[in-house]
Amino acid sequence: MYETSNMNKSERTHQFILMDFEFTTIYRTSIVLISGAISNSSYHFKTVKLEGKPLLLSVNQNVRQLNNQEIRKAISVINLYLKLELQVALLKQLHNGLSTSTNNLNAEFIRRYLAYNNKITIIVLWNGSTDMDILNRLQINNYNLLNMTCFDISNNQHFYIQLITMRNTKVIYEYSLGPYNKQGRMLSLVETHKIICSKQHKGMYPHDPCYDLELTKCIFNKMVKQFQYKNLVKHF
Question: Which branch of life, at top level (predicted)?
Answer without folding.
Answer: Eukaryota
